Amino acid sequence: MKLDIAKIDLPVVEIVEEVRGALGEENTIIVNAPAGAGKSTVLPLALMKEEWLEGRKIIMLEPRRLAAKTIAMRMADLLGEKVGESVGYRIRFDNCVSEKTKIEVVTEGILTRMLQSDNAIENVGMVIFDEFHERSLFADVALALSRESQQVLRPDLRIMIMSATLNLPQLSSLLKAKVVQSQGRQFPVEIKYEGESDVRMLPELTARLVKKVMAKEEGDVLVFLPGEGEIRKCEAILRKTLNEIAVHPLYGQLPPSRQFAAIMPDKNGKRKVVLATSIAETSLTIEGIKVVVDCGFSRTMRFDPSSALSRLETIEITRDAADQRAGRAGRLAPGVCYRMWTKATQSRLKEHRTPEIQEADLASLVLDLAVWGISKPDSLIWLTPPPSGSVAQASDLLHQLEALEDGKITDLGKEIDKLPCHPRIAHMLLMAQEEGLAELATDIAAVMEERDPLERESGIDVNLRIEALRKSRKGLVSNKVLSRIEKVANQYRKMLGVKVDNGPVDPFETGLLLVYAYPERIAHAKPGNNAQFRMANGAVAAAGHKDDLAHEEWLAVAQVSMREGLGKIFMASPLNPRDLAPMVKEKEMVEWDTKKGGFKAERNLCIGHIILQSKPLHQCDEGQKVAAILKAIEKEGGWLLDWNKEVTQWQNRVLSLRKWNPEEGWPDVSKATLLGDAKEWLAPYLSQVKRPEDLKKIKLKEVLQHHLSYEKQQVLDELAPDRIQVPTGSKIVIQYHANGDVPVLSVRLQEIFGWQETPAVNKGKVSLLMHLLSPGFKPVQITGDLRSFWDNAYFEVKKELKARYPRHKWPDDPLVAEPNRK
DNA sequence: CTCTCCCT
């Protein structure tokens, strides 16, 4: 093992000594090195014999399996060894390590597993996070957990974060870590802004620009589009018009041979245009690209905690992603990048891509933390904390799956966490073992975890996929997706200790198993409907009219997308209602519906929101009724109550004081907040309510006043009085604003003769804005400074008023004149 | 008209 790092011709070699020095003193550092610097191969090798390792291993994290494997091989090569000796790798389905291994390159899920089985990762001296700027969910979790381990158990554990583009100041201040900067090996790329485009016309607009670019520039062109649909359309247009040029699509779904064709130089030496998704941003590198055309959009998956569903969205790309796309033109020589947006748009774009943790399904994360004994994620240090809505949804789901109980991990939860799949699927696998259906469950699990092996036209029946998988195992059909599914199924079979089942499938068994994974998606045909189903979670979803399953009475739905209220079912199996018996619950339902005149009370047999049988309920207790009204108010808003001007005025007075005197602790009485916690203040007044009119009769202002202490009510009247007495003795309303803006006093000018100073509230600290009115209540002047008004503007105003109201008195000296009402 | 990418 002879290796002289200094002789390697890569830019990162220049920073090796600095990194060594920093890690000798600190346990955490950040290395900022752009693509092509060689950091992933050189730095682990340079550090593998440091003293502080005390003979322990270095673990390096890679976001992709292929990268993990090739980097390990390159390092072994530099040492003149075979992979698996000093340097090894571990990825799903494949590992190559031995007792001699000192550097292990692993993919991200593997490290979470390692941390899970040994919190202190005893035999690891250093964890390296490569490509950290991608901010994958696993990398964020792994960093939070290894920091925790470092702080609590292993202060000697070194953490090195490597990243190309990143929000470095934020990261280094959070981790209190030094940043070491390296040069990259990148040629300059000239950026050209091509003006506005339109997301609905991307294929056409992009094709037009590509034609222009082909005429103007030389070399191969890489075009970024959001997805397969746009790529196919653009490809069709270009094929019609560009002769002598090879047009290649490139996206994840494409069979490997066609991906390979897109990456390699053209066989006949033709110029090449590659139409790619974001796959070409990081995962695949196409050599020889001189020109990049960037449409400015990308498609990303986003999880919606309220529906527990993920959906794809087409979004504007961020500046760091745009830079990465442009960089693809400068790998071997100077290049050009055409951006389909304006310079103005560029300055408006978000700087960094949204970390996955902010928009992903967090079920696995919350379960992982629970296994560590962490019930609230905010007790860890996060670069971006997981959003509370997603954490709450994940926690609800895990309680429903009995993986958590009162926020703590259960024995079942620990078993679920050990399986390499989503907790829903893991739950299904374990329950299937009890039902004696484990063989079928492993097939379903693999089908659900991987991409759909059939065409969309095949319909929504999961059983067709399982049949296809079983046929492929018998060698009757073969396709790339099915062989991947089989690989996953095989892993599950090994973990559960079951054999292959290639027999016929009972769809009802599939349905039953799917319910273990997706209990809230049990679906019941709506009466007299067109293939529409009510799901247990309350949503309505439809199957295609011609689908084989459209006329089933019960479905176990696995995949569904929601759009504007009506869902679309993508994957389901028929369900035998007899299997549902244990899930049917008797529930008393009391609802308030103002439009229908009040209470509706029923005793129902139901599964979630699906009602199987319903009988009227003749008596129900007060608590249920009050709860029903509160729920209606929370949902429908203030119009159910008499929310009049007086109430608003009272709210605005309190809210103004809240703004002006923050130290006095005035409550937030904004309408939104009040409606949100109506239970706190309104409930005691609801017990007598029977009809909608009764609700309107509640005197809100009085109710709310009682919410303040007597003392506070006094202070309110003193500091923010409802009315103010003017020189004539009239008591005139002061108009307050919810946001604490200066209150307004609208008063006729003749009533305030003799008033020297601008009136004020809040102990004289807030002067009123005067809206001065004519005798006919028309506005004549607005002033915040009465003294200056009398001295200056009054004389102009007087002239006008004298002409319009000659019978009124308009004195020359208003400060001593008698005020009057007439 | 759902179909970006990746991972245990």
What's the layout of helices and strands?
Elements: H1 16-25, E1 28-32, H2 39-47, E2 57-62, H3 65-79, E3 87-91, E4 94-96, E5 103-107, H4 108-117, E6 124-129, H5 137-152, E7 158-163, H6 168-175, E8 178-181, E9 189-193, H7 202-216, E10 220-224, H8 228-241, E11 245-250, H9 256-263, E12 271-276, E13 289-294, E14 297-304, E15 309-316, H10 319-327, E16 335-339, H11 343-348, H12 363-371, H13 388-400, E17 404-405, E18 408-409, H14 411-418, H15 423-435, H16 438-449, H17 462-473, H18 480-496, H19 507-517, E19 522-525, E20 532-535, E21 540-542, E22 554-563, E23 566-574, E24 585-593, E25 598-607, E26 610-616, H20 622-636, H21 645-660, H22 671-676, H23 678-681, H24 692-697, H25 700-707, H26 710-719, E27 723-725, E28 731-735, E29 744-748, E30 760-761, E31 766-767, E32 769-773, E33 779-783, H27 786-791, H28 793-804
The chain binds one DNA strand of 8 nucleotides through residues 63-65, 91-92, 107-110, 112-113, 134, 136-138, 226-229, 251-253, 277-279, 281-283, 298-301, 311-314, 356, 364, 419-421, 451-452, 456, 491, 559, 561, 563, 568, 570.
Domain Helicase C-terminal: 209-373
Organism: Plebeiibacterium marinum
GO molecular function: ATP binding; helicase activity; hydrolase activity; nucleic acid binding
